[in-house]
Amino acid sequence: MHKFITTGLIAAAIAAGAAAPTMAADGDKPLVRCIDITRMSSSKVVDNQTIILKMRGGPDFKMTLAHRCPGLKAQGTWRHDAKSLAKLCEVDTIEVPVHTAGNVLDSNFTPCIIDSITEIAKDGGAKAQ
Q: Using omega within 30 degrees of 0 as the cis cutoff, is the peptide bond preceding 70 cis?
């Protein structure tokens, strides 16, 4: 079963938690940054490569895709298969629905790879990691 993430609608929560980077063995740099999708309150599609993730209790995150994802801005919605750990991680794939002629929703989705998830500083800029 898929949990769908859309603008203004987030999959049901199972437990609250914080953003959690997976640390390298030496503890220096995060290998992959993940966020707990159950803490997400909404998302805002900025353009075909950027999504702002609003989190309950803050901080918010900027998710940047590896490449432009056709239709993301126009559709304003996306989904992520979170059946494993209720986490959204760098290198995961999101999917954007494809609309056919006449704006009818098709059953196909365009896959797009997440390149980075960056905490947004309170002043609105990206926080240094």
A: no
For the chain, 129 residues long, the average pLDDT of each consecutive 10-residue run is 39 36 50 84 96 94 95 90 80 85 68 94 61
Pick from 53, 66, 62: nearest CA to 7: 53
Closest to 9 in 3D by CA, of 32, 35, 37, 28: 37
Task: Render 52-85 in DSSP notation, one character per residue.
Answer: EEEETTS--EEEEESS--TTHHHH-B-B---TTT
Tell me which residue has tokens 């750990």. 85
Q: What is the pTM of this model?
A: 0.70
Q: Check: CB of residue 112 under 8 Å from CB of residue 69.
A: yes
